[in-house]
Amino acid sequence: MRPFDDVYAQWLDKQITEESNPRRKERLRRGLTHGTVVFLREIWFPLVANLDHLHAEYEVRDWQNGYRYLDLVFSPLGAKGCIEIQDYRSHARDIEIGRFKDLCMKQALLGLDDWLFLPIAYLSIREDPGVCKQLTLAFIGKFLAVETPPELNWAEAETIRFARRAVIPFAPGDLAAHLRLTDRHTRKLLHRMVDKKLLAVANGQKRYRTYRRVDQ
């Protein structure tokens, strides 16, 4: 695998070179925020091994005909995924009122325009990298089709996809509602997939309670 610094430099240079919008080009030339670079280096790149389909300082219009810039946009096949790295403040009251209102407005506008929004706190990258990686994998899974072994039936294949998209371990009832199967049928399905080592038990001894994908 190529070193992150080489991949990052080529990725950023390509965006600057190809960008015709002078506003975004200037922002890219100034460089990305420290938190964004740390996220890419310590969370995204170890998981994906590339920066494909990612766009930095992505420009969008708001309802007042102004411009807003998103830290990172993930857009495979035209998808609309936004990752924002939130700066740290020692206390919530230390966030300026105007900045707090603007942050809430940005999230509202993105949600109403059908964006999938993933906020990541900078401190979480430093203190809870494993959680950040799980969130990022689930975020990516919302946009990418999950390949499954051809020998699986439809319920087994969809269970694999469901597990890949789940941020936290899921209960049999969650899967039953998704598959529209009875609890009894779903539990048999889950036991069979654990036996095949396609899923792992997250919690429970004599009676399994929650499940997770095997790499979680």
Task: Give an overview of the whole structure.
The structure is a single chain. By secondary structure, the protein is α+β, with helices and mostly antiparallel strands. It has 2 domains: 4-141; 154-213, Arc Repressor Mutant, subunit A. It has 9 helices and 6 strands, in the order H-H-H-E-E-E-H-E-H-H-H-H-H-E-E. The strands form 2 sheets. Strands 1-2-3-4 form a 4-stranded mixed beta sheet, sandwiched between helices. A two-stranded antiparallel ribbon has the order 5-6. The radius of gyration is 20 Å and the shape is elongated. The two termini are 22 Å apart. The model has no long low-confidence stretch (mean pLDDT 86).
Describe the protein's topology.
Layout: H1 4-18, H2 22-30, H3 34-48, E1 54-61, E2 67-74, E3 81-86, H4 97-112, E4 116-121, H5 122-127, H6 129-141, H7 154-165, H8 172-179, H9 183-195, E5 199-203, E6 210-213
Parallel strand pairs: 3-4
Antiparallel strand pairs: 1-2, 2-3, 5-6
Helix pairs in contact: 1-2, 3-6, 8-9
